[in-house]
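Same chain as my last thread, 207 residues:
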Amino acid sequence: MNAQTETLLQDGPAGRIEVAIDRPADAAVGVAVIAHPHPLHGGTLTNKVVQTLARACVQAGWTAVRFNFRGVGRSEGLYDEGRGELDDLLAVIAAQASDGPLCLAGFSFGAFVTSHAAARVQGTRDLRSLLLVGTAASRFAVADVAAELHGRTLVIHGELDETVPLSAVLDWARPQVLPVLVVPGGGHFFHGQLPLLRHLVLRHLRA
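reply #2:
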């Protein structure tokens, strides 16, 4: 993301996991772990939406940790339809954010995996914020968000998302009465609207 980005390989359940870490200038509020889009459709830790989420987190004072799911980049293993990818995410949390305040964020397939990670750590960690962008609700069984997390959760979706219809996310959110922030005219990758996305995430994190 920038010259100060630290890259490393950590142990994971399917072998090594490639990790990129960006730190704020001052003492960090906590650690934000960010998950990327579908591994079989070009998703990586360098995805522009993922980098936008990382920038917003760093700007809000969080250490931002991005990583490649198994089989992507230098991460070892093979795609596992979300099951192994959840294990990868939990391994990164355990290694890079073992204690203190935690923020979980994900884009598209990464939001689906992140929803399950949030359900797994809820009640055992100080989960300050949950960021779900372009949530792949039409393609995967996204986990419900615990009621006590609703006030700390930001769900953002593009009105004209061509990959995951807005209606699918509303169908997922409706039974939970979970608000969804809709970006008018926004597509799945928020082309031309990444500064707005960064602002919305930053405003949520600073609230």
